[in-house]
Amino acid sequence: MGIAVAALASGVFAGTRITSPEEAAARTAPPEASDVTVPVERRVLESAVIARGDASYTGAVDVELQFPGLETTPVVTGQVPKVGDKVGRGDVILEIIGRPVIALGGDIPMYRTLRPGMSGPDVKQLEKALDKLGLDPGTVDDVYTNTTGNAVASLFEDAGYEPPAPDPEIQAALDAADDAVRSAEDDVANAEAMLASASAGPGNAEKIAAQNDVDQAARALQQAKEDGDRPAVADAEAQLKLAKANQEDLLKGPDTSGERAALNAARKRLADAQSDRDAAAAEAGTPLPASEVVFVPSLPRRVDAVNVKRGQEADGAVMSISGADMVVTANVDAAARELLAEDMEAVLELPNGDEVTAPITEIREASDDESTYDVVLTPEDLSTEQVDALRSANIRLTIPVANTDGEVLAVPLAALTAGPSGEARVEVQRPAGDDGVATELVEVEVGLTANGYAEIEPVDGSVDEGDLVVVGREAPADDNDE
């Protein structure tokens, strides 16, 4: 009896340890992955350019003026600034022998007088500066054209001064070309008058007289025939023939070929004179004397020291100027540059924990890398503590570039997939029978994307706040892994 019970127990135990091939395969198969889901949210999305920037005052600059070709002593005659004055784009910082010295932004010193026909990087710098002032220099390139000269003239007129005059020799050549055009115009007028006079033809009196001669000769011929005077008939026929020939010559018009040739020659001389005048006018466009402009890296600035007085000769550094305001300069790539514009507001995170706003005051090509851009921001109304915290600091800044109008449906970018035709979709997990779940692909229209989220609007189907969307798959831990 005891032996039988033991055998039965052994059989039952063995039976529990015997596994069919199908069961063994099921137990060793990889576990099914489960959906990783997140709820759909309603939130405000804001797209922004985030960068780091260096805070600084623009360094002090000694202003030294250039006087190439100036034939008189460069005496200061007015417009002397005071310490603390602000120097901006297009401002007159000094007056030398009655002519202004105008400040413009740029890194290349003014080392030569610029005039139409010249080219170079200093010309491109000038045209950029004029364009920033709203003065149209034409295409901003490295060629000084008459349009550039017109913008220079406007620059001086806006400053309250007469535009610079061209070189006397160039002006004399233009004056001579103008005289040649006027003389050629007179020649054309005279040739036209001569052609008109020659083309006028006979007057009525001449025509009547010619007809009378014909009629008189015809009557004489008729009378001679009636008289039977053969010699008189022959003579009358000759007179009639002559009268008719004279009448035909009179009525067919004069020969004006000589007058027309003279007019054509006069018109060609006029065209040549006008071409020469245009060339001379191009060279005689408004120049920019080297002594009347000074280029300063970044403006506005503050006058720190003035080294000249009215009546003194301008020699060496006439003044020293530094940045008038503290600025923050950040470097961004071309893609970020496309999103930014001057006057956009940025949020600066100060080292002391404060946050302040600052507008973008300048965007320029980086001097050390033409593929990136320097974005200059100028914080306003800083407290003394904030200035101290910001000085020479490297800080994080955020520049909002777009945002949704209020709260919108938003999902993580990982929830978006592409359909067979490129349409955007989300996979929504919904309850199914017997406590199960099922997923549904819903086509959506994607709006603003920011901070890892995308604005969505259902196109076909429904998606609501709180719905679960699939963002990935996660395999459960394998119980056999120990």
UniProtKB/TrEMBL annotation:
<dbReference type="Pfam" id="PF01471">
    <property type="entry name" value="PG_binding_1"/>
</dbReference>
<protein>
    <submittedName>
        <fullName>Peptidoglycan-binding protein</fullName>
    </submittedName>
</protein>
<feature type="domain" description="Peptidoglycan binding-like">
    <location>
        <begin position="119"/>
        <end position="153"/>
    </location>
</feature>
<dbReference type="InterPro" id="IPR002477">
    <property type="entry name" value="Peptidoglycan-bd-like"/>
</dbReference>
<dbReference type="InterPro" id="IPR036365">
    <property type="entry name" value="PGBD-like_sf"/>
</dbReference>
<dbReference type="InterPro" id="IPR036366">
    <property type="entry name" value="PGBDSf"/>
</dbReference>
<feature type="coiled-coil region">
    <location>
        <begin position="174"/>
        <end position="227"/>
    </location>
</feature>
<keyword id="KW-0175">Coiled coil</keyword>
